[in-house]
Design goal:
heterodimer; A: mainly beta; B: mainly beta; 11 strands
Chain lengths: 115, 114
């Protein structure tokens, strides 16, 4: 069974600073990896996904993530954070099981952006 | 309407009440999901529907009863809930069940059980 760990529960960054949110996964084969964002009062929105190929993937809102197999990591990055990025971020890992994809979400990292 | 909509957005109910949550997706997707989101806990998958057929029930108590009359609508019928059932209930959809990682979520229903 797959699992995902987000070691940081809460992170605070200054507006304009760079951001890196950590995600570690556990899965025996090549995983499907995802990052979602949840703004207050909203559902989750898919930021980006990795299936195969280039290990650096670009997503929406200026985010990117890098798959590192040797470290079992899929960290989310943004070069310059905006106040509107304040939200909770969820990493997820998917695994094929027959005709279905079983998805496991992390516990989330809450991002606070200060002026 | 676009995307995934959920009604009501907020619901307060007593332990003896019966209520229903509604979800509608306007994306032409074939798979739909119910999740429970509680504070400080991972997102919990409750039910999965594929082409209106329930394909997964993650040991959810029978006081939660899902219904999927067609691939665009999903309901969660609630009865005799417990205070610990208070949470944000999220509905989601994906093109196919083998693309479950690429889900579109509704805004959720904030449920409070008194």
């Amino acid at each position: 069974a797959q699992s995902v760990t987000q070691p940081d529960i809460h992170i605070t960054v200054s507006e304009g600073a760079s951001l890196e949110l950590r995600c570690n996964y556990s899965y025996g084969a090549t995983p499907y990896l995802f990052w979602y964002v949840q703004s207050p009062g909203q559902g989750l929105q898919l930021l980006l996904k990795y299936f195969s190929g280039d290990t650096l993937v670009q997503g929406i809102k200026g985010f990117e993530a890098e798959f590192k197999r040797s470290q079992s990591s899929f960290n989310l990055r943004k070069p310059s954070v905006h106040w509107s990025d304040a939200a909770e971020y969820f990493c997820a890992v998917g695994a094929r099981s027959g005709g279905y994809q079983k998805v496991t979400f992390g516990t989330g990292t809450k991002l606070q952006v200060i002026p | 309407e676009t995307g995934v909509t959920q009604t009501p957005r907020h619901l307060v109910m007593g332990m003896t009440n019966k209520k229903s949550l509604k979800c509608e997706q306007h994306l032409g997707h074939n798979a739909m999901y119910w999740y429970k989101q509680s504070a400080k806990k991972p997102l919990e998958l409750m039910f999965v529907y594929n082409f209106k057929e329930q394909t997964e029930n993650n040991s959810v108590p029978s006081r939660f009863s899902p219904e999927c009359p067609n691939s665009s609508h999903l309901f969660l019928h609630l009865h005799t809930l417990q205070p610990e059932d208070s949470a944000l209930y999220l509905c989601a959809s994906s093109q196919e069940p083998d693309r479950a990682g690429e889900q579109y979520f509704g805004p959720g229903t904030r449920l409070t059980v008194t």
